[in-house]
Design goal:
The chain is mainly α. It has 11 helices and no strands.
Amino acid sequence: MLSSEFTARLEENPDDTRLRDKMMETMKMAATAMESIPPEQWIQYQIEPVWAWYNIAVAYDLYFQPPVTDSISKYLAKADAVRFYPGQDARGEMETFISIEDLRAWQKYHEGDYAGAKASMDSVLSVIAKVEELSPNTVITEKGEAYSFYVQMYSSLGQYRKALEYQQLLEENNRRRYERSSLTTVDMVRPSDWPARALFAAPITLPMSLMEVAPTWAMMSATLAFTSSTESCLGRYFSMAAASASSLSASS
């Protein structure tokens, strides 16, 4: 309960490091309390420590500038350690893998390990393809996040043609989302209270020879606004508020 309160207050006061530190403290306490419950009882009590540890890693990415990569790595390892538990189905295993490995790709990117970052995100796309076979709608957001990652990485490396290739894939993914949303509500896997911070890459500053196909601010801002409430948000942006709520039963 406290971690939810501190998270909400920090959203209103993002520069308050005291609130941030209290949020981190309570999140770690909640995760530790959840993990103290025997794994065979996790389904009974509807708790998933993997998400508690993962959300701590997310916080070290979202609320610290620059992101604290050693802490991200530490808490992703803790999430990995409890990713498998009695009664979890195959789809749940794939969902957690997508989220953990997505954030690990960004961690490696921040550290300048571009080859490692690409390998991590390549594995995310591979698992996304498997999930699509079971339920195509649930990972359309995550696929967009992966494409966005490649856009940012390749553009930062000056590999603009590769960045453009993934920008075009991203825009096609966006169009599919718009078309689907006009017909039905996209399947929800986990709730999301936050818009994805970087779900769609900002427009690329391309060389003049490629400028005629560069995306515009109008298109990108419109698609960003669309993402805040209609779809699942695994990957890097899983809602900490949702996980904090589930930690209440474990910490009370």
